[in-house]
Amino acid sequence: MNRSINLSKQIKLTIIFLLLFVKSFSQTSEIDSIINIIDFRRDSVRAIFDWVATEIEYDSQSLLLVDETNIMLYNSPTKSIIREVISRRKGVCYHYAELFNALLTRLGYQSYVIDGYVMQEDIINNKYAHAWNAVKVKDKWFLYDPTWSAGYVRNFIFKKRYDEKWYKVSPESFLHTHIPFDPIWQFINPPLSHYQIRDNDFTIKGTVNFNFQDSIFARLKYTKREECWTSLQRVKEMGLTNNLIEKYAKNLMINYDLATIQSARDSLRMAINYYNKYIYSRNNRFKKPVWTDNMIRSNLGDIKMKIDASNILLDSVNSSDLRLAQYKSETKKQILSLKESVDSETIFINKYLSIWSRLRSAYKF
Q1: Closest CA to 48 of 118, 97, 115, 120
Q2: Residue 193 has what DSSP assignment?
Q3: Which of 186, 300, 315, 343 is most buried when burial is the number of CB atoms within 10 A of its CB?
């Protein structure tokens, strides 16, 4: 008898606008191939910035690829974005920002890609979100936008024109044109609300101590689920004042629910591992390896505890997103299947353990 279970079916989700959950940096050779051709006779950050801004062409035709809510769709993980821009030498803001970030990270800098919206001539652009970079240099944070430094787009045609204006800008100055969705990336204490920015009010108000550095450091310890939730709360607190912020908050919630389902699957996977170990020992009449009565009881208890934890997590997900609903449903089915197997084995175990140990060798398995 072999009743082992395999948890292998995964449902690929395409998350609109954000890829918080699928970031990866595994293309070291591709990154090194760029580093090897950059002229580092001057400051390394400047050398990388100039290379990205001048060697990558903006893919203006991608601006046509927007959905009905005017949000660009990105369905590739970070490693694919970087591989694509290295191969094509062309991309949009996320390609510029991710490549710049990957190169700096490879050299040991603390660097981040920041999502947000922009203002030009005091007018908020509600159509396209944007991405740029923050880099810590000599214990100070500076902002960089290699996309805007590369040139400009007119009538969907890219015009290459290097502009160093967007290199190593102070947070206070950068905020007048680049507004991060999450206020920790303003690098200002206290941060400006989205209400203030909507009203072109850039005066720092209030005495609330907002330690953005602590918040950034805390992210390193968070699970993906915790990271999404804390970011969502900060964004909401600053105000959902335009459709891009609303879409960002919505997708943070989607990513939070996705992380919750995947946490449930992690718990389910552990339950399946426990169950398969039990089945292996049962198939060997609990002799290879030897399982004591307490080990048998404890293992079944651990399985049931992990199943309960999975169900609690799944029950907390009430997303209207059809992809998440499908993902949740598939996971529920797998939990139910395992539970039925465990319930059946529980009946067997109760009978088995009720038999005097010396007579168990004659028990039918």
Answers
A1: 97
A2: P
A3: 186
At 6 the three-state DSSP class reads coil
Query: Among residues 164, 112, 166, 106, which one has the least CA distance to residue 136?
Result: 112
* Cβ within 8 Å of residue 186, ≥6 positions away: 171, 175, 179, 180, 192, 212
3-state secondary structure of 139: coil
DSSP of 64-105: G-B-TTS-B---S-HHHHHHHHHHHSEE-HHHHHHHHHHHHH
Helix 93-106 / helix 28-35 crossing angle, nearest 10 deg = 90
With beta carbons less than 8 A apart as the criterion, state whether 234 and 116 touch.
no
Nearest to 238 by CA among 269, 273, 267, 210: 210
For the chain, give every domain's residue range.
256-362
CA distances from 314 to 104, 230, 265, 327 (A): 38, 20, 9, 10
pLDDT digits (tens, 9 = 90+) for 96-137: 999 999 999 999 999 999 999 999 988 999 888 999 999 999
Lowest mean pLDDT among 97-101, 216-220, 275-279: 216-220
Report CA Rg, the chain: 26
Compute the average pLDDT of residues 204-218.
Answer: 80
pTM, 2 dp: 0.83
Query: Alpha helices, DSSP H only, in 284-364?
Result: 293-315, 322-354
